[in-house]
Amino acid sequence: MNGIPRPVVLSTAENQYGSTLRQRTYTCASSVKAMIKTVEFITSNSTTTLNNVNISRIVDKNYTSQADEPLWGVENVAQFQNTNVSNIHLLWGLVNNSYINDSEISTIRGKALYLPVSYFNSDMSTFRDNLAAASVFTAAWNTVYEESAWIAGVAAGGSPSYSGDIQYSLYLKWRDLSQTESGAANILNLIWTDLVASAVVGTKTGFENNTSVTNSSTLGQRAVNRHHSVVVYDNLLFAIPAFVTLFLWTILFVAAMILLITRKVTCRMLLHYMNQTSLGRAVYDAEHPNREMAISSSTVWTKEVGNKQIGIRAYNEHELTVDRKPLSSTASQ
């Protein structure tokens, strides 16, 4: 990562012509670590709303012994699937002690867990499923390094630009942070936090209020609703075109039924006129008159002359040109 250049003599204006600048360059590597925190809140006036609830302290959770530390689990990749960790988003999280020897997951006990890598070449715009926890944390780093942190003033891959090229306040923040190693690392952390927060804040599993579980091995149950596309008019004035169309369709339908019932129009008659007005039959009958073939069925006509070629007159500019001469008039006195 290249930091924002600063004048060697800090009293010199940054953009002064001929001034000497110093630019720091950093090599960065990032990973994601999950851990449990202890959060303390304070409230005022015994309020029952969250507006007056403030966080007073956030510290690492303290464990009395190693046996009290949480048990973390990561999904195993099946060998028969002929795949590896770069082809799948691995599920991870806290697991019960009863799964410590489960063949489906790998477990480790500790205060924190470094998350597995994400799907190869995935970013915030290419999620493979709707499980944010399985992909968003590591995929966000791909977005930080490949798109957000280096594209100047341009949004790409569904994420905004964090370069500071067109936001002066962000430019000043990056200028100050990029002067130290810890500050440069904080730049990437801030971008990552902003991306992840927009993806996971408000995420719900759907099992929060679920109380009926059939057995202990079931996480929960959710109702599946079937959605139908329905057009609803808040104001019936907007439905006038639909009513007019329905009225005209009803008139045509009633008229058609009357003609069919009274035998004024029959299905054979309709079929006959449909055949006679088809473009191919009309053009061929005009060039090769044949009454028997003209009134034949579609099957017979297609079999006999359906593969015939119809010639089209070639373009001739002189045939399309009409000579126009001005009219002359003579006057007699």
Describe the protein in words:
The structure is a single chain. The protein is of the alpha+beta class. It has a domain at 237-304. The chain is built from 9 helices and 9 strands. It has helices spanning 136-148, 168-177, 181-200, 240-261, 267-276, 279-287, 291-294, 298-305, 317-320, and strands spanning 6-7, 21-22, 33-35, 37-42, 54-60, 71-75, 92-94, 105-109, 112-114. The strands form 4 sheets. The chain has a 3-stranded antiparallel β-sheet with strand order 7-6-8, with no helix packed on it. Helix 1 packs across helix 3 (181-200). The longest helix is centred in the C-terminal third of the chain and has 22 residues, at 240-261. It is elongated. Mean pLDDT is 78; it is low at 322-333.
Summed up, the helix count is 9
Mean pLDDT: 78
Give unreliable regions as ranges: 322-333
Strand content bin: 5-15%
The structure class reads alpha+beta
Radius of gyration over alpha carbons? 38 Å
Strand order within the widest sheet? 7-6-8
CA(first)-CA(last) distance: 100 Å
**3D shape:** elongated
- Please count the beta strands (DSSP E, at least 2 residues each): 9
Percentage of residues assigned to helices: 25-40%
